[in-house]
Amino acid sequence: MVKVRLLAAALIGLAGFTHSVAVAASDGGPYTAEALLENPDKILSLLAEGVIEFEQVPNPHWRTDACNACHMGAAAAGGKMPPLRTEDIDGLCGNCHDPSMVAEYIHAVGMEPPDEFLDRMPDDFLAALERGGQVITCIMCHDLPLQCEEKRFPQQEINPFFFRGGPYTERTDLCFNCHDPEDYERYNPHDQVTDEGELDTEQCFFCHNTTPNRTVVRSIDDVSFNVAEELEKLCTGCHPYQPHPGGSWFSSTGNREGGGPNHLKVPPEKIRRRMEKMVRETGAVMPLEPETGRIFCATCHNPHERGVQYYPRADVGADGYKRLRRGKFEICMACHDL
Ligand code: HEC
Ligand code: HEC
Ligand code: HEC
Ligand code: HEC
Ligand code: HEC
Ligand code: HEC
Ligand code: HEC
Ligand code: HEC
Predict the structure, then answer these.
(1) Could you read off the pLDDT of 52-82 as tens digits, one per residue?
(2) Does residue 235 have its Cβ closer than 6 Å to ligand 3?
């Protein structure tokens, strides 16, 4: 039980990981993005002295013109790459990423994995471990060459944090490269009714910031959430998003090239009218994100346990196949006129 809770805490922590730095917004006087990229080891002290703002720290990832943030220069003719600025990986990243903030959420940096982890780790994890001096460093989980080489940049869409061995359908699949899945039974926020058949209101707080009063609430507009915007964040900590309706789930199908149309967008007028019609006809709900009118995860999936919803229309799909609000094929017809 302790381990289950720890994992839940870790995932909540990860989901709430706040950005310590952001993309350079504007020209910072003498401290231009170019100058900072050329002198990354000065960045932390310039920040500490208040000479530059967080927003000015340049983002070197997934681009062709910032190799010098980590390597001693750009590629030479013939493509040969100069060595890294420092052999100390954590120090290299620590130029821009506050190590204390990273450590707070992403544990185990600097630790030596126990033998049972070594038996489980795939070869490229073992190689990264050796590269880091047999202790956990940033490159254990983040596979930097993914964001180094232009031909691999399309991976950004499906694996934005360049996870080693990714993209992962479930975030915990990254964890299981080292941890024993048996010890980490996944925390299940969809389990919302106790064995005695009572509502487990503690669970509501996983997504809502107050327990919705089921008999009063009439729609998504009457409930509030732990996140202010981008409601998919309620889900992506455990189910990292890859566009999937009409596409495929990469690791579950083994097809990493897959893909498919991104559905998390505002439906055009024609589709929206069809949705409204289908909602009237089928008696199910297909809520859009209130702030933006975008389609989000719960437009298609019902995250609640069966019986939590008081109104039958909002109960449809709960605990059903993939928690879909309509059948696997019918769901497409709710929006598309095929
Ligand atoms: C955020 C830091 C960072 C940036 C920016 C970066 N690299 Fe790297 N690069 C690394 C690290 C770390 C490694 C792995 C070195 C190791 O494992 O010894 C690496 C490895 C490489 C390798 C070896 C690939 C392999 O499979 O072993 C090449 C080639 C490379 N980088 C090219 C580039 C180029 C070109 C750019 C700019 C377009 C770039 N890198 C930008 C950190 C970076
Ligand atoms: C020159 C500064 C700099 C260096 C060096 C650097 N980063 Fe970053 N990194 C950034 C910035 C800026 C962002 C964007 C943060 C944001 O959007 O809030 C970022 C974002 C990230 C992200 C999130 C992915 C993304 O694109 O937003 C990861 C993961 C990451 N860095 C890991 C690393 C690792 C691991 C290293 C060391 C090999 C490293 N970084 C070195 C500045 C840097
Ligand atoms: C044990 C695996 C692991 C290690 C080791 C690790 N990370 Fe990460 N990192 C993650 C995971 C998982 C996330 C995704 C968190 C999320 O989804 O909010 C992440 C996210 C990040 C982000 C993006 C945060 C954001 O919300 O934009 C940055 C930056 C980052 N890591 C930097 C680092 C640096 C620097 C190191 C080394 C000091 C490091 N990481 C070591 C697993 C790891
Ligand atoms: C690269 C290997 C690696 C990966 C990947 C990894 N961890 Fe760990 N983790 C460790 C090591 C090493 C320790 C220290 C364990 C020890 O010494 O027994 C640790 C410790 C922990 C602990 C402290 C409790 C314990 O079991 O000792 C938690 C919680 C944890 N990890 C969660 C996660 C989560 C969540 C993920 C995925 C996002 C993850 N880990 C991914 C290597 C890893
Ligand atoms: C995993 C996240 C999650 C958890 C946990 C959760 N909810 Fe929700 N809830 C949502 C989302 C997303 C919506 C908006 C979509 C919708 O209307 O179903 C929502 C909407 C609702 C609605 C309005 C439904 C409608 O359309 O009329 C009620 C009522 C509700 N939740 C009650 C609860 C109660 C009670 C609990 C705890 C037992 C709970 N929720 C736990 C994510 C969650
Ligand atoms: C803390 C982790 C966690 C969060 C956050 C979470 N889930 Fe889940 N989810 C699980 C677990 C564990 C299961 C498997 C158990 C089950 O089906 O009840 C699951 C199952 C599912 C399934 C069924 C998958 C299948 O293969 O049958 C869907 C769909 C789903 N979740 C959607 C969502 C949506 C939508 C949200 C956000 C509103 C969300 N989840 C938030 C952990 C999580
Ligand atoms: C437009 C509708 C739609 C949206 C939006 C959507 N999904 Fe799905 N999702 C589906 C369908 C359809 C399937 C079933 C695919 C299948 O079985 O072939 C599915 C499957 C899943 C599964 C099960 C994966 C598996 O391996 O079987 C999970 C988990 C899931 N979705 C989570 C999410 C999350 C999280 C989001 C938001 C970030 C989301 N979905 C957004 C339609 C949608
Ligand atoms: C909640 C409504 C909704 C559902 C459910 C839905 N879609 Fe979509 N779909 C959209 C929207 C909105 C677009 C973007 C249309 C645009 O940008 O013009 C889209 C785009 C697409 C596209 C890209 C081509 C095009 O017409 O623009 C395909 C292919 C697609 N959907 C397939 C599917 C499949 C297969 C399913 C069922 C598994 C599905 N969709 C379920 C709303 C939905």
Answers:
(1) 988 899 999 999 999 999 999 988 888 889 9
(2) no
